[in-house]
Amino acid sequence: MILTGPAIAAAVARGDILIDPFNLSDLNPNSYNYHLFPEIYKGSASCHPGEIPSLPIPGTGLLLEPDCLYLGCTDEFFHSTRYAMTLVGRSSVGRLGLFVNISADLGHVGSHNRWTLEIKVIQPVIVYPHQCIGQVAFWETTGMPDRYAGRYQHDERPYPSKDARLLSSPHEADA
Amino acid sequence: MILTGRAIKEAVDQGEITISPFESARLGPNSYDFHLGTKCRTYDILVLDSGRPNPSTVQEVPPEGIVLDPKRIYLWDTWEVIGSSRYVPIIRARSSTARLGLFVHVTADMIDIGSINRLTLQLHAVVPVRVYPRMRVGQVTFWVCSGEIVPYAGKYRDTESPAGSLSYRDFGISE
Hints:
The structure holds 2 protein chains of 2 kinds.
Chain A: E1 2-3, H1 5-14, E2 17-20, E3 27-28, E4 31-35, E5 39-43, E6 55-56, E7 62-64, E8 69-80, E9 84-89, H2 91-94, E10 98-99, E11 106-107, E12 112-121, E13 125-127, E14 132-139, H3 170-174
Antiparallel strand pairs in A: 2-8, 3-4, 4-14, 5-6, 5-8, 7-13, 8-12, 9-11, 9-14, 10-12
Chain B: H1 5-13, E1 17-20, E2 32-43, E3 48-49, E4 56-60, E5 66-68, E6 74-84, E7 88-93, H2 95-98, E8 102-103, E9 117-125, E10 129-131, E11 136-143, E12 145-146
Antiparallel strand pairs in B: 1-6, 2-4, 2-6, 2-11, 5-10, 6-9, 7-11, 8-9
């Protein structure tokens, strides 16, 4: 079952969900709004995101180009030991042709981080720091929970793929 | 929990789900197939600004359809009015649509409870593809929620689909 906005607020109050910072005004009927952290990696045909230093997103906006892949992240930290999470874009952003993830929308029970966004645009789009860009939904689970102990725990900024090593050594990347 | 086709039909009969027009033949084991409408909106400019209004134009699509350009985003209405006062609708492409490389949304698959309207689909073609008005393009699923329901009262409530992005309103700008 998917939590309604009031159920998300109640879970935050009980401590079953951590959203930091949390504002009641960002609750939707069945999700919570997140915002764009002002740092982004740019990747292109000539380099993976993360091979060159990240860019700040200035207050005047940053132009995102098609044919590139950007890694940004949420302003908010998300964490729940009880609910699984899914991340979607805001309809207002989808209507501009901006993808916020590349078919990787599931957030595991126990993960605790600023959620890295895989951003791709169809037409050029100008984005701004801290703008509302998407939503997270929370799902009840069934079965004994295992905690996420993955490679992206506690990320505080956009984090490039740790599988980039695959290009040189597939066995090392599996370690 | 996700509703079965029969449960969708019962909820439509009880007024908890709106799908109009509704045909039982369009029910799948856990979804309902929806169709493109006849209206397509495109932006008049190439570079889109998420902080400002972006001029756009709606066209009535002729029966012979239009070829979608991979470098543009197309906003298209659904033939059906879709929504629910009790369940969370989530949309996705039909497999037959996806096999043509056609996205029906741009990471914005979740509809708020209480938003009952023709949907605004965000069409993106990976390779050029011709699409036709009234074609069966996607499916809507319905998910049980947990918690008190506060219906959608957001900025697209009274818009006519396909509606362009109102992202700029998040910046305190009115058109």
